[in-house]
Specification:
alpha+beta
Length: 75
Amino acid sequence: MIVIKYGGHAMSDENGNFARAISNALENGITLVIVHGGGPQVDIALQKDGISTELIGGFRVTTPEIYEVVERVLS
């Protein structure tokens, strides 16, 4: 089993490299668990909503207000 984090930046891959890699792994019988991110997409939504964020060590501090946006974007 391989766990893959499919981050927000990778989601903008227009060449299909991620999809091909997943397809190849599945064709070769590899069990995959894919965990998605969405940081850039969340950042855009927060900016549109006029919500400022605080980062500590590169990680977003998630307030209840920010959590609502994260949930909306990642759902």
